[in-house]
Write a structure and sequence with these properties.
By secondary structure, the chain is α+β, with helices and mostly antiparallel strands. It has 10 helices and 17 strands. About 9% of the residues have low confidence.
C-alpha cells in the first residue's frame, strides 16, 4: 500500500452498504501514463498473490478472471581522421549492441506489463484495518457499468487502458467473516458486493467524471504529428516491414520536439543527436496519440561518429532539447577525448621507435 500511496496522483473515496453485513469503505487511486510508460506499481510478489486470490472469487462462487477491460570528414588530418573514425566506429558498435539488448528487454517488459495490468484485480481487501492477503476483488458494479456503457464518443475520452490505471482498497468491518488464520474471507466478497448500495446515489456518474478528469489532466500521452513524406514511409516499410509509420514531430502537452532538433538521450554513454524522424510500430494514416514510440537520431558530432551514425531509441530515453551552448560543450569534450588519444598514441609510438633504434644499435 505504501507504494500505491507514493505513486498515485489522484484518489476517489466511496462507501458501500452491504445488506446484513454493514458498510464497506473504499478508495480508488489513479496512476497516470507518463514518459511513455505506465506508472502503476507492479511487484512480482503482490501481483502473484492478487492474481491467484482474485480468481477464487465470483458471483457464482466459481473461478473467475478479470473481464476484458564512419567516414572521413573534410578538414580532418589523415592520422587524426583515422583514429577518429576508428573511435567512432567502436563507440557506435558498443551503442548498437547495448541498444539491441535494451530494446529487446524493454519489449518483453512492456508486453509482460500490459498483460499483467489487464489481468490484475483492482482492489485489495482489509478487515478491521488488517490486510487479508488471500482476498482480492476484481472490480465493482459501478466501475463495470461505466466501462460497459461507454458510447463511441465516450471511448474517445475514456479508452480501455485508463481502466487498467486504477487500483484501490476496500475496508470491511466486523460484520464480515474471515477465516481463523486471517488469510481470506469466509464470505464470497464478489457475490456480496454485487448487491451493495453506494451511499452516493450518483457514484457511477462521479466515478466517470473523476476518471475523465484524471485521464485528461494527468496522463501525458505523446501525440505524433506531421506524417513524413510518402517516399520516406515507403523506404522505412521496405526496410522494417509494413507495421511502421514515420512522423516529423511529437508533443506531450509540455513541449514539442521536431525533425532537426538536437536532443539528449539517456544512454550510456550519453548521446546527443539530431532528430531525423519519429516512428510507431503500427501502420496508420492519421496524426494521433500512440504509445511505444521511437526516435531516430544522427549522433553528434559527425566528425567523430560519421555522418551516417544513426540509431533508434525508445521515446522514454529522450531527456529533452539541447541548447547551442550545451551542444558546443559536448562537441568540444568528445573531440578533446580523441585528440588526447591521438597525442598519447603518438608519444607511445615515438617511445617504441626509440627503443627499437637503441636495440638495433646495441647501445
Amino acid at each position: 500500500e505504501s507504494r500505491y500511496l507514493a505513486a498515485q496522483r489522484a484518489s476517489l473515496d466511496f462507501v458501500l452498504s452491504v445488506p446484513n453485513h454493514g458498510k464497506v469503505e473504499g478508495i480508488l487511486w489513479y496512476f497516470p501514463f507518463e514518459n511513455d510508460q505506465e506508472t502503476v506499481p507492479l511487484d512480482a510478489h503482490t501481483l502473484g498473490r492478487m492474481m491467484l486470490t482474485s480468481h477464487r472469487q465470483g458471483p457464482d462462487g466459481a473461478t473467475q478472471r478479470r473481464p476484458e477491460g564512419a567516414t572521413q570528414q573534410p578538414g580532418v588530418g589523415g592520422g587524426l581522421a583515422a583514429v577518429m573514425t576508428q573511435q567512432g566506429a567502436t563507440q557506435m558498435a558498443a551503442w548498437q549492441i547495448q541498444a539491441a539488448k535494451q530494446d529487446e528487454i524493454e519489449r518483453q517488459e512492456e508486453a509482460g506489463r500490459t498483460a499483467l495490468m489487464a489481468s490484475c484485480p483492482t482492489f485489495e481487501a482489509f478487515w478491521q484495518g488488517r490486510l487479508i492477503p488471500g482476498a482480492c476483488v476484481d472490480t465493482l458494479p459501478f466501475i463495470r457499468a461505466v466501462h460497459l456503457k461507454r458510447t463511441a464518443a465516450d471511448k474517445d475520452r475514456l479508452p480501455d487502458e485508463v481502466f487498467s490505471r486504477i487500483r484501490g482498497a476496500l475496508f470491511f468491518g466486523p460484520g464480515f467473516r474471515v477465516t481463523r488464520n486471517k488469510l481470506t474471507f469466509r464470505d464470497n466478497l464478489a457475490l456480496l458486493l454485487e448487491s451493495a448500495s453506494p451511499a452516493d446515489r450518483q457514484l457511477e456518474k462521479h466515478f466517470k467524471q473523476w476518471l475523465d478528469s484524471c485521464h485528461h489532466q494527468l496522463d501525458r500521452s505523446v501525440r505524433f504529428e506531421g506524417l513524413s513524406h510518402q517516399s520516406e514511409q515507403a523506404s522505412a516499410r521496405k526496410e522494417h516491414g509494413q507495421d511502421i509509420t514515420l512522423f516529423e514531430r511529437i508533443n506531450d502537452g509540455m513541449q514539442t520536439i521536431q525533425k532537426g532538433d538536437i536532443i539528449k538521450l539517456s544512454t550510456r554513454p550519453a548521446i546527443l543527436g539530431r532528430v531525423l524522424f519519429f516512428s510507431i510500430s503500427q501502420a496508420v494514416q492519421h496524426e494521433g496519440c500512440y504509445s511505444g514510440g521511437r526516435v531516430t537520431v544522427c549522433a553528434l558530432p559527425p566528425e567523430l561518429l560519421g555522418a551516417d551514425s544513426r540509431h533508434t531509441w525508445p521515446l522514454r530515453r529522450v531527456e529533452g532539447l539541447v541548447s547551442q551552448e550545451e551542444l558546443h560543450e559536448h562537441v568540444d569534450r568528445e573531440l578533446g577525448k580523441v585528440i588526447g588519444l591521438v597525442t598519447n598514441e603518438a608519444c607511445n609510438s615515438r617511445e617504441r621507435n626509440w627503443q627499437l633504434c637503441v636495440a638495433a644499435a646495441g647501445w
